[in-house]
Specification:
With about 550 residues, the chain is mainly alpha-helical. The protein is built from 17 helices and two strands. The structure holds heme-as.
Length: about 550
């Protein structure tokens, strides 16, 4: 499909700005493993503080990259399947809001005025521009939803009996989840944090802020995941050489995400004393509910891949696994997808452990957690984002991928690094190794009385994995920008591989309309969150004053 120059320009900018920022994000990832392994026994390196680096790492990789990509991929999906480009003025508006927000937050982080990590829990206080920047980034990502909804309703009127393309359904569901969940964090930022950070209000209700954050925070992880799932359902079977085993299974999974992505946030707060046990248990049960669409996805994708393998001549029960195009350079996207999926098997299993109300006590706030989430957000999410960014740039610009062999090997290198890193982190977590801690100054420093020799092997493994991932990440940056610098060899076009469905499933009306699902979504959210907010309101202690991340004494006392 041919698209206009303006459309291409916006998409290229939305893909390349976050990939450029990745250099900073990935560098700080490596630095984390170096500090934690005790190789560096200091609180800062090159004038960048440990927590400043960790904040940059989390915000750039988990918030900026994912949000820019979700919007760009949404534009591309809507344009490709609706055969119509979104409104250019709104595309630019969304882009500028996101860029302005990112620049504001980046200034605050680089100036050392917002070392509050990507969760920005109070009473750690950031500069108001950090919160404002985050809010602008979010508002910028809301804008396209309204335009896509308009495009979709027009398309629906013209095609009342045609099944909504799965990728369009997924994009709309993802951005509805995003819109609803971000309302809570917008309230947290605008009403609680900014006035408190400016000094207009004396204290902040920490428990309420955390509860509002996690209303947003867990849905956020599915906002990261769904673009990857859209690619797995609609593109992967095609590049594997097969068909999608069931389109209906994909629809069911997507609607289940709409129901269960938000009302599970309290599973991040099992240890918060202000929330009653029964509420935690209910959120725990719903968390098992949100794992169901991923189980559906695992079986549907495995069946689709098995079909592809058998079509390629595979025999026996598991022979199909050997007949997939792992190193086929002309189908390099496959490598990004399959490595992400393999990592997600472990990311999923560790997530189920986290969800257990009792087992969570063992791993909460330990290194196990980064072990878990790197195999999710830095697994299927990251790999499909970078793989697809490269694919979209190359096909839309008409430029061949630079060092295609390297581009195909990068995801395997990343996966190996990630498996080693996450194994080290998970093992360390089970031995009590804390997350978000500069272990080098104490626990991994033999000169410290707190030295823990049993954490040497675990942190060393994480360091080895970190180095391999850093190399893979940098190779990707070379491939991506090398491609940008290449000369055009063809007329660029928007061309996405589309997987055919294996079964000719009839259109089921329930899985092709939003209203019943939206109503159910609201009911479940109310059931899960009204009691949680009442509990927080009843049990919260005094409000907290402002704290600087580098000082255990409140700011007001320090300055007096
Ligand atoms: Fe999680 C904490 C529970 C999924 C991200 N999670 C986090 C944090 C992050 C995160 C960032 O219940 C830390 C937040 C912080 O900073 O404090 N998580 C779950 C559960 C799932 C889950 C039950 N998480 C994700 C995803 C993420 C993500 C997805 C990012 C994208 N998580 C938790 C809990 C906590 C938590 C607690 C809080 C813990 C605490 O104490 O603080 C589920 O959605 C997982 C379901 C997944 C599966 C796997 C399906 C497998 C597939 C692959 C199939 C492979 C094939 C290939 C087909 C059931 C689809 C086969 C072919 C071959 C050739 C082999």
């Amino acid at each position: 499909m041919q698209v206009t120059k303006t459309f291409k320009r916006i998409i290229f900018l939305e893909l390349s700005i976050p990939v450029a920022l990745l250099t900073i994000g990935i560098y700080h990832g490596l630095m984390q493993t170096i500090y934690r392994a005790g190789v560096l026994r200091d609180t800062s390196f090159f004038k960048l503080d440990y927590y400043q680096g960790l904040t940059l790492h989390g915000v750039i990789n988990a918030i900026v990259l994912t949000t820019f990509f979700a919007v760009a991929f949404g534009h591309v999906t809507m344009a490709f399947y609706m055969k119509k480009e979104p409104n250019k003025n709104l595309m630019w508006l969304s882009f500028f809001l996101k860029v302005t927000g990112t620049l504001m937050a980046a200034w605050a982080m680089l100036a050392g005025k917002a070392s509050v990590l990507y969760t920005f829990y109070p009473p750690l206080k950031a500069h108001p521009l950090f919160y404002l920047g985050a809010a602008l980034l979010i508002v910028g990502s809301w804008v396209p939803l309204f335009d896509w909804a308009r495009m979709y309703s027009r398309w629906k009127k013209e095609n009342p009996t045609v099944k909504t393309p799965l990728a369009v359904l997924g994009t709309l569901i993802n951005f509805i989840i995003w819109f609803v969940c971000t309302l809570a964090v917008a309230y947290e930022v605008l009403v609680l944090l900014i006035p408190w950070s400016m000094g207009w209000t004396k204290g902040v209700n920490v428990s309420l802020a955390r509860t509002l954050f996690w209303f947003f925070g867990h849905a956020l992880v599915y906002f990261w995941l769904l673009p990857a799932y859209i690619m797995f359902y609609t593109i992967l079977p095609k590049v594997a050489g097969g068909k999608l085993y069931s389109d209906l299974a994909g629809r069911i999974a997507l609607f289940l995400f709409l129901l269960f992505s938000i009302p599970v946030g309290v599973h991040h707060q099992y240890s918060d004393p202000t929330i009653a046990q029964g509420i935690k248990f209910f959120h725990g049960m719903l968390t098992y509910g949100v794992a169901i669409p991923s189980f559906i996805t695992a079986f549907t994708l495995a069946a689709s891949l098995e079909y592809a393998g058998r079509k390629n001549g595979a025999k026996g029960l598991f022979g199909w696994m050997k007949k997939l195009p792992y190193f086929d350079e002309s189908r390099y996207l496959f490598a990004y997808f399959i490595c992400g999926l393999i990592l997600f098997i472990f990311g999923g299993v560790t997530g189920i452990v986290n969800a257990s109300y009792s087992l969570n006590n063992v791993i909460h706030n330990t290194a196990w957690l980064p072990g878990h989430f790197h195999m999710t957000v830095a697994g299927p999410v990251f790999l499909s984002i970078v793989g697809m960014s490269l694919y979209l740039y190359s096909t839309m610009s008409g430029k061949k991928v630079f060092m295609r062999k390297v581009a195909t090997i990068v995801p395997y290198l990343w996966m190996i690094g990630m498996l080693i890193f996450s194994f080290g982190m998970s093992w360390g977590g089970l031995r009590g190794e804390p997350r978000r801690t500069n272990l080098g100054v104490t626990y991994l420093n033999p000169e410290s009385g707190l030295y823990r020799p049993d954490w040497v092997p675990t942190t060393t493994l994480a360091l080895c994995g970190g180095i391999i991932m850093f190399i893979a990440g940098m190779l990707f940056i070379v491939v991506f920008f090398g491609t940008i610098l290449k000369k055009k060899t063809a007329e660029g076009a928007l061309d996405i591989p589309v997987a055919e469905a294996y079964h000719d499933e009839k259109r089921v009306a329930l899985f092709d309309k939003f209203k019943p699902w939206l109503v159910t979504m609201v009911i479940i959210i109310c059931l899960a969150y009204i009691p949680a907010l009442m509990s927080v309101n009843k049990n919260s202690g005094p409000e907290a004053p402002r704290f600087d991340p580098n000082n255990p004494v409140p700011i007001e006392t320090v300055t007096k």
